[in-house]
Design goal:
Keywords: Membrane, Transmembrane, Transmembrane helix. The chain has about 80 residues and is an alpha+beta fold. The protein contains 2 helices and 2 strands; from the N terminus they run E-E-H-H. The protein has a two-stranded antiparallel sheet with strand order 1-2.
């Protein structure tokens, strides 16, 4: 590779007669489709769904117990 760029912000490598920026590999990494994030979102969605089901089930159980207590008090 020969130095074809006069400015310091370029890495000096030429591809097809064009100067390539040193930041280009970082930009290429940022443009790629995320691999890790959708998996994390999927796990968080499953955890949130299970948590909501647990809260609803707990609330229903608590309401049933409260209703049974009121029925027992009404009999006395």
């Amino acid at each position: 590779m020969r130095n074809c760029c006069a400015a310091n912000q370029f890495d000096g490598s030429c591809e097809g007669g064009e100067c390539r920026s040193a930041a280009r590999p970082i930009i290429d990494l940022l443009d790629r489709a995320p691999v890790f994030m959708p998996r994390v979102r999927d796990y968080l969605a499953v955890i949130a769904f299970i948590s909501i089901i647990a809260v609803v089930f707990g609330a229903i159980t608590e309401l049933r117990q409260t209703e049974q207590q009121f029925q027992l008090q009404a009999r006395v």
